[in-house]
Design goal:
The chain has helices spanning 6-22, 29-43, 70-73, 80-83, 112-121, 156-200, 202-221, 226-238, 248-251, 259-265, 268-276, 283-290, 312-326, 338-347, 355-367, and strands spanning 49-56, 59-66, 98-104, 125-136, 139-148. It is of the alpha+beta class and 373 residues long. It has two domains: 6-178, 2-Layer Sandwich (Beta-Lactamase), CATH 3.30.450; 201-367, Hypothetical protein af1432 (Orthogonal Bundle), CATH 1.10.3210.10. Strands 2-1-5-4-3 form a five-stranded antiparallel sheet. Strand 4 and strand 5 (139-148) form a beta hairpin. Helix 7 runs antiparallel to helix 8 (226-238), helix 8 (226-238) crosses helix 13 and helix 11 (268-276) runs antiparallel to helix 12 (283-290).
């Protein structure tokens, strides 16, 4: 069978791929893959049915289909060996497309239940599959396949279109996997740094976690973007990491600090900056953590910045950091009540603390029944 309208079909294929990426911002990953799968199916006119299998732990399971009863199809799950029975597949990391005509399933390879499912789906005998593996770093993590039942073969443009879509999906999965690895690496660095300061200052362990939870909740309540909330979380957990550079005698002193000792403590934001600024992923986190002791009236440290010159993320950490410090037992004083602490935040509204953040914090606490006036 000759190719027909190959240029038109390829043009539609490229346009559909571009549209899938351009319009993917508002889609979930599941919706994005569904859209791509349906687009590929529409552009391969010979395909009568199709399915998209995704690897879940060690088994490949169907997540989308066209022409099949999905409730029946979902009863099937294959390991890699069974998924590619009768199929050839490149396991060297190159995306390619294959065609296979199945005269009849080898019943010795499948259970009686699976054979009955194949019969119900119409894929027991006499069908032709056009398929391509989905790969990440040379590993098969999915399968995109389309079936026809007229005894004919697929044309060259159908194979090229499927290859384009299989590469698109593989690239998308690869980005997801690599992004996940980066997030895990990012979190490992954070955990290592927090562990280091916890060894020196036991108070920091619970404090950092509480401040992080409060900062994330308040940032969410204030409508900050997802990226801002992520930055607030990281900066909050690391805001005191610079205390590694403060001597234990000063850090854990049970009594009131002298003016000289207080000046030493005030160095910890600068130490935090020095520790974090060489980590590429932490450029924004460094700025936020570095400024968490700046005052709204400009009388804070280390730079004496005031008002809107202080990032809202830093202002959030400043408020929740002070609140947690006041409501926690310290070596030199007992914890204040939440009522006392809120009163101080109100007194310092517009002075030490950003008024907008103080108001939002009180509102958020009330909404969550975490503070009652």
């Amino acid at each position: 069978m000759n190719d027909f309208n190959i240029n038109e079909r390829l043009e539609k294929s490229y346009q559909a791929i571009v549209d899938a990426f351009v319009n993917s911002g508002h889609l979930s990953t599941h919706e994005f893959f569904s859209k791509v799968f349906e687009s590929a199916f529409e552009l391969i006119p010979y395909a009568e049915k199709g399915s998209f299998y995704e690897k879940d732990e060690d088994m490949f399971r169907p997540i989308f289909s066209k022409g099949y009863d999905m409730n029946v199809l979902k009863k099937l799950a294959f390991n890699e060996e069974n998924l590619f029975i009768g199929f050839e597949v490149n396991r060297e990391g190159n995306i390619d497309v294959y065609e296979f005509h199945n005269k009849q399933r080898d019943e010795s390879k499948f259970s009686l239940e699976e054979i009955e499912i194949f019969k119900s789906l119409g894929t027991y005998a006499e069908f032709t599959s056009l398929y391509a593996p989905i790969q990440v770093d040379g590993m098969n993590i999915g399968l995109l396949c389309f079936e026809r039942f007229d005894g004919e073969t697929y044309d060259g443009s159908s194979k090229l279109i499927l290859k384009l879509y299989a590469q698109l999906i593989s690239n998308f999965y690869t980005q997801m996997v690599h992004a996940k690895r980066e997030r895990e690496r990012y979190q490992e660095i954070i955990n290592a740094m927090v562990s280091a300061i916890e060894l020196k200052d036991k108070y920091t362990e619970g404090h950092a976690k509480r401040v992080t939870n409060l900062a994330k909740g308040l940032a969410t309540h204030m409508g900050l973007s997802e990226s801002q909330i992520t930055t607030v979380e990281a900066a909050a957990i690391l805001h005191d990491v610079g205390k590694i550079g403060i001597s234990s005698e000063v850090l854990n002193k049970p009594g009131k600090l002298t003016l000289e000792e207080y000046e030493i403590i005030k160095e910890h934001p600068s130490f935090t900056k020095k520790i974090l600024e060489n980590i590429k992923e932490f450029s924004e986190v460094v700025k936020i953590a570095y400024m968490h002791h700046e005052y709204h009236n400009g009388k804070g440290y280390p730079q004496g910045i005031e008002g809107h010159g202080i990032p809202i993320e830093s202002a959030i950490i400043s408020v929740v950091d002070a609140f947690d410090a006041m409501t926690t037992d310290r070596s030199y004083r007992s914890a204040m009540s939440e009522e006392q602490s809120i009163k101080i935040l109100i007194e310092e509204r517009g002075e030490q603390f950003n008024p907008q953040v103080v108001d939002a914090f009180i509102e958020w606490k009330k909404l969550n029944n975490r503070f009652v006036t």
